[in-house]
Design goal:
The chain is 38% helix and 9% strand. A 3-stranded mixed sheet has the order 2-1-3. The protein starts with 39 loop residues before the first helix and ends with a helix. It is mainly α. The longest helix has 21 residues. The chain has one domain. The structure holds zinc ion (ZN). Zinc ion binds next to loops. The site of zinc ion (ZN) has 7 residues, from loops.
């Protein structure tokens, strides 16, 4: 019986037999696109948008701006949202993660709608002027 103590293995730890396993199960998870529940960060961002939107409405309505226009990446058209409709969309996002954004606005008098960035620049300028 040779019973050598093997605790002084000169090659370090054991090799991982699955190190190069190509059947990584995580690769199967791509391209599944269910409506995912919002993350906490999503919710914070939408809530921040909603707060900003309310600022826009207060600042821009007196200047004849009635809402936001969005270049839609899905259908390639512009969508016009009154302040109320945009707020409703954001609130419904917070509620169930879906919106009806592709429904056309009733009265797209296009001059009365500005992009989100324009509205932000406008309110920033107003804030600077009054401070
Ligand atoms: Zn669209």
């Amino acid at each position: 019986m040779t019973s050598h103590d093997s605790s002084s293995d000169p090659y370090g730890g054991p090799l991982d037999p699955f190190l190069d396993d190509p059947n990584d199960p995580s690769s199967l998870l791509e391209d599944l696109d269910p409506v995912e529940p919002l993350t906490e960060q999503d919710r914070r961002e939408i809530a921040a948008d909603l707060a900003e939107l309310i600022e826009f409405e207060l600042a821009l309505t007196p200047h004849g701006i009635h809402g936001i226009v969005v270049d839609c990446g899905d259908c390639g058209e512009q969508h016009f949202f009154s302040w109320a409709l945009m707020a409703a969309n954001l609130r419904s996002l917070l509620g169930n993660g879906r919106t009806g954004v592709h429904e056309p606005a009733a009265e797209p008098s296009q001059d009365a709608f500005v992009t989100w960035d324009y509205a932000r620049g406008f309110t920033d300028a107003l804030a600077r002027r009054s401070s």
